[in-house]
Amino acid sequence: MSAEEKRTAAPERAQKIIVAIDGPAGAGKSTIARHLARHFGLLNLETGAMYRAFALKALRSDVSLDDARALEELARETEIRLEPGDQENLVLLDGEDVSGLIRNPTVTDAASRVSVFPAVRAWMVRLQQQVGARGGVVMEGRDIGTVVFPHAEVKIFLDAAPEVRGQRRYEQIGQKGTTPAPPPQEVLRDLRARDERDRNRADSPLKPAPDAVILDSTRMSLDQALAAAEAIVAEKLNLTS
Ligand code: DC
Question: Which residue's CA is the closest to the ligand 1 atom numbered 10?
Answer without folding.
Answer: 112
